[in-house]
Amino acid sequence: MRISGFYGSLLFVLCFLTASAQKTEQKEADKPTDSVTIKERRYGLRIGVDLYRLTRGLYDKDYKGLELVADYRISPSYYIAAEIGNENKTDDKDRIDYTTKGSYIKAGFDYNTYQNWLNMENIINVGARYGFSTFSQTRNSYKIYNPNPYFGEEQIVPSGDKFDGLTAGWIELVAGLKAEVLHNIFVGFSVRINYLISQTEPQNFANLYIPGFNRTYEGKFGAGFNYTVSYFIPLYKTKKPIEKEGKK
Amino acid sequence: MKKIPALIALAFMALGSANCERDDLCSESTPTTPRLFMEFHNIDVTADLKPVTLDMREINSDDTLRVTAQSKVYVPLKTDADTVTWIFTINPESSDPNLIRTDTIIFNYTRNNVYVSRACGYKTVFTLNGNGGPAPGYQRTPLPPLAWMRTIIVDDYNIEFETDAHIRVLW
C-alpha cells in the first residue's frame, strides 16, 4: 500500500542520483588532469512542494493537503529546514468515521552526509524536526463494539460532534535524498519517524490523525514521508581549490 | 561516514514494516460492551452457587440461548434502547411440565457510549435505574411465590465490566 509507494519513489530518486553522478564522471575524463580544480559551494534558499500531498487529492476523495518545504544552507553540510502544511482528511474505513482538518509547521535541520563530485549539490541527508499542529476533529459517526451480538446488526451511531482547538507537538527523525535533475531544480524524497511529545485530546475520543504527524498508533510513534520538487535560489558562493581535500 | 545513510535507511525500513502491522483488530482482552452478569445462588444457603439450566429469549426475538447447568448467566442488553425484556424458562427440557416455569424480567437502564480505541471504536456501558431513584431497575412477572426466581438482589447498578456479578438470583 503506502509503503510500496515509499520504496518506488526511493528507487526513482536513487536513479536520478546515479544518472547525474555518471554524467559528472564523463565530464571529469574530458578534462586535462593537471588543471587546478576549484570546488565551488553555493549557498542559498531552496523552496519546494510535496508532490505526494499535492497530488493525493486527485485520486483520494477523502484527502486534501498541501506541504511547502524549504531549506537554507548555513555551512558546507548543514541546512536549516522547515515544512509548513495543511491537511483535511476523512477516514471512514475503521470503526470510527472522522474528519481531521488543520495546519502544521515543522522546523529543524538537515545534515548532508554525501560527498559530492566537484560542484555537484546532491544531498543524502539525515536530520531532525520539531513539529507542531493545530487542528480540529469531527466525529462523523461511530460503531458500538459488541463482542456478544444478540440483537443483530452492528449499531452505527451518528454523531457530528466537532472538537476544536486541538494541538499536538512531536519530534521527527528524517532521512532523505535530493538530486539536482535540472539546473537548480531538485527532486527529493524523505522518510520520517515521528515521536509524539504532547497533545490535547478531545473528551471521550482520541486524535486518530494529526496533520503533519499522520495517523496515530496506540503508542507514541508515527511515520511519514514526502516527495518533493524544489527550486534552489542561489544567494552567494564560496570557492576553494581542492587538490588536497579530495585525498584526506 | 558513508555507512550512516545505509544504516538509517535500514532502521527506517524496519520501523516502516513494524508500523504496517495491523492495529485495527479489537483484542478480546479489551473490555467492550458488557452484558448483565446474573449469578444464581441457593435460596437456602445463599453463599452457595446453584447452577441452573434455562432457556433465555428476548421478548421480540426468535433466538433462544440455552444455558446448561451454569451458575453464571450473561444477559445482553440493548445498546439502542433503555429497556429490554428477557424471558427465562427453567428446566426447558423437563418431562414434568410442572418443572418448566417462566419468569419475565424487564431491565430498565440508562446508556453511555464510551470511547475505547481506534480498533474497537466505542462501547456502551449501562446504569440500571433505581439506585436511589424511584424507577426500578427491573420489573418481573410473575411475582413470588409463583416466580421460580425467589429473590433478586442488585449488587451493582453500574454495568461496565463482566468480572463481578451485577445481580444475584436466589432460587
TrEMBL record, chain A:
Signal peptide start-end:
1-21
InterPro entries noted in UniProt: DUF6048
Could you tell me what this protein is called? DUF3575 domain-containing protein
Keywords recorded for this protein, A-Z: Signal
Q: Which branch of life, at top level?
A: Bacteria
TrEMBL record, chain B:
Q: Which InterPro entries match?
A: DUF6452
Protein name as catalogued = Uncharacterized protein
